[in-house]
Amino acid sequence: MNGLTIYDIATEAGVSPATVSRVLNKKKCVSDKKRHDIEKIINKHNYKPNAAAQSLNSGTRVIGLMVADIRNPYYGSLAIECEIAANERGYTVLLCNMLSDPALEESHLEKLYAQRAEAIIQIGRRPDFLVTDPSYAEHVKRISKVIPYITSGKLDGVDCFCVRVDQQKAMKIVFDYLVSLGHSKIALIGGRKTVLPTYEKWNMYVSLLKKHKINYRKEYFLEGNYDNDAGYACMERLLKLKDPPRAVIAANDDCALGAILAAQDHGLSVPKDLSVIGFDNTRLSTLIRPSLTTVDYNYSRYGKALVDTAIQAATGGSPPREMFIDPIFVVRDSCGAPEV
After folding, report:
1. Are 147 and 27 contained in the same domain?
2. Tell me: the pLDDT tens digits for 165-213?
3. Are strands 186-189 and 221-222 parallel, antiparallel or unpaired?
4. How distant, in Å, are the alpha carbons of 30, 255, 294, 304 from that of 298?
5. Which residues pair with 161 in a beta bridge?
6. What span, in angstroms and rounded, lies between the C-alpha atoms of 15 and 38?
7. Nearest one of 318, 319, 315, 317 to 21, comparing CA atoms
8. Are 195 and 181 in contact (CB under 8 A)?
9. What SS3 class is residue 22?
10. Which residue range is the domain that position 315 belongs to?
11. Residue 157, CB half-sphere, CA atoms under 13 Å: how many?
12. pLDDT of residue 1
């Protein structure tokens, strides 16, 4: 094979170029099986590395990090923890902000591939779709043959690594807490069921209603966006009902803020008249008055798990294909027992 490069070897072996470089440089951090497979391919093609190829792993180690929208506090918090974890392990993070733009999502993925990042972590956008986008899955499938791909969502049919928050456990924690306070009129607002984390919350919400023998009321479930405007609009719709809920679980903290503002604008007191719970535990949750009871996504543990999975996959290890992060419940002032 004329003009064979280290990237051709990596593609044929199904590993990253950095892993091939470690074998060439006789580094020990490669599994015996992968080392044997790579050496077999090298010998088959009588490959002779040049100086550039042999020095590939001697420079800066880079992990690509694709984030849906860094302006969202959830994504910002998780991106920071990924960068901290990577720096502690001697890696540099190349951050790519998708700005919720599918064209940028495709472009960033291709650029990280072209720049030969040792691994790519994607947080948000199309891996969060409940139904996998087949064209995007094919794009990732091609790249993941050379560079390990790790996501906080899922891509059906793609050989990737998934590190996710246990959303069903998160919903069970908040729902059971509200029931323990005496609530039975519990609404779920914000988010879209076409988004995997929201669907998982909604699915568990329905199951818990049955478990606690509480009737499902379709008017208590309102889809929307994930911002405070959506939370405000959903809360206003709920307050127009003849029998409005006494507790609201919002898709995230931003949505919960909108719900609290709407309730207060209508003369209600939180938590005296209405209990509200959010998800994310961003800075916003401590700035709201009353301070927000919410679910923390264990960002430090989450970021470390994403980065550790990426590094293990890039260096010939065998990290688990799927890992779930346990959420942390944070009780503040926005919930109370319903008054009779």
Report:
1. no
2. 999 999 999 999 999 999 999 999 999 999 999 999 999 999 999 999 9
3. parallel
4. 30, 20, 12, 10
5. 150
6. 9
7. 315
8. no
9. helix
10. 61-165+298-326
11. 12
12. 43
Tokens of 219: 């008017």
Are 76 and 95 contained in the same domain? yes
If one counts the domains in the chain, the total is 3
What's the rounded Cα separation, in Å, for the pair 157 and 68?
22
| Three-state DSSP class for residue 139 | helix
Structure tokens of 18?
A: 């950095």
Do 160 and 89 reside in the same domain of the chain? yes
| pLDDT per position as a tens digit, 103-151 | 999 999 999 988 879 999 999 999 999 999 999 999 999 999 889 999 9
- What are 201's two structure tokens? 């919350």
Q: From 106, 135, 152, select the one nearest 307 (Cα to Cα).
A: 152
HEC assignment per residue over 265-334: HCCCCCCCCCEEEEEECCCHHHHCCCCCEEEECCHHHHHHHHHHHHHHHHCCCCCCCEEEECCEEECCCC
Q: Are residues 239 and 92 in the same domain?
A: no
* Residue 295 one-letter amino acid: V
